[in-house]
Every structure is written in C-alpha cells, then in structure tokens.
Design goal:
- About 45% of the residues lie in helices and about 10% in strands.
- The protein has a five-stranded mixed β-sheet with strand order 1-3-2-4-5, sandwiched between helices.
- The protein has six helices and five strands, in the order αββααβαββαα.
- The structure holds uracil.
- The site of uracil (URA) has 12 residues, from helix 3.
Length: about 170
C-alpha cells in the first residue's frame, strides 16, 4: 500500500464511533521518507477543522520549539495515535486506540523512520519495532502550561535535535 491509499482509508474510517463527531480525519503530514516521526494523542478542534495535525495552540508551540532547535516541521512526519478528534477533546478510549493502531503501524512501515517521538502518555501505545529509537517526551500542551514541563520539553527537543544530527552525519 502507498501513503495515498492509506490516507484514503483513514479518511473513510468507521472502525470506531469517533468519526461521527468529527469533521475531518487527520492522517498526518510531513515528509513521507522522514527519518523522524512524531506521534501525538488525537486531533483537537483546529486539527479537526483543517484536517491537519498539530495546527492549534499546542501545535504552533511544538512547531516553534522544533525550529528553535533547528528542526523544520516539513522535514519530520507528524501524526497521532488516533486519527479522529474526540468529544470535548477527551482522551481516546483504549478500544478507540486499538481500532486505530493499524494505521499508525502502516505509516511506520511506509515511512521507515529511525526515530519515533512519543508526545505525551497516550502516544506510548505506539507499536515498538526493533531498530527504531523511541523518545518519550512531554506533550506540548503540558509544556505550554507548566514551567517545569516546559524546561523538560526543551531539553528533550534539544536531545532530539542532537540525535537527528548524528543520523544525518552517519548518512554522509
Ligand atoms: N494534540 C495532539 O495530541 N494532536 C494534535 O494533532 C493536536 C493536539
């Protein structure tokens, strides 16, 4: 399967009830051959409106912080563990996560990243595959709200930037 086909499947997904309250499914975006994949929880209101991941407040904060450390949003692939928004932005239920996981699994298979960044607790359900490095980091919405979390988040993004540099150097 290619990415376009997978995205079409996600747009038409009825595997759980979440599609009923959503305007758009949000498959993900970025470089389809990126070495780095970022995985969040699920789309919020602005993501649902636009069909794009991480474009609301938390997303803008994430994009800005990545750039502060030299990581351009276009060079990574950004997605979520669950592809539809949820009522009042509640945490997706375990059955919704498991219904949606095959899409993430297929995205990982197609993109073949070297690093997967897990944003917040929900993203920890991401399948673990041998040979890929996993970084569990603070979710940007927590980083925006709490100073301590913000400091931790920035350190983690700095470490991520360092790891990306090492991968790029090993490929020269
Ligand atoms: N929070 C997430 O976890 N994902 C998004 O796409 C937006 C906000």
């Amino acid at each position: 399967m290619v990415m376009d086909e997978l995205n079409c499947q996600i747009y038409g997904c009825r595997r759980c009830q979440l599609w009923q309250g959503a305007k758009h499914a949000v498959p993900g975006e970025g470089a389809n051959d990126s070495k780095v994949m970022l995985v969040g929880q699920n789309p919020g209101a602005e993501e649902d409106e636009t069909g794009r991941p991480f474009v609301g407040r938390a997303g803008r904060y994430l994009t800005k912080t990545l750039l502060e450390y030299g990581i351009r949003r276009e060079e990574v692939y950004i997605t979520n563990i669950v592809k539809h928004t949820s009522p009042k932005n509640r945490k997706p239920h375990p059955d919704e996560v498991s219904a949606c996981l095959p899409y993430l699994q297929e995205q990982i298979r197609l993109i073949q990243p070297k690093i997967i960044v897990l944003l917040g607790a929900s993203a920890k359900e991401t399948p673990r595959i041998a040979g890929i490095k996993y970084f569990e980091i603070v979710h940007p919405s927590a980083a925006m709200r709490f100073t301590k979390m913000r400091e931790k988040f920035k350190k983690q993004i700095a470490e991520l930037a360092e790891q990306i540099k090492q991968i790029q150097q090993s490929q020269i």
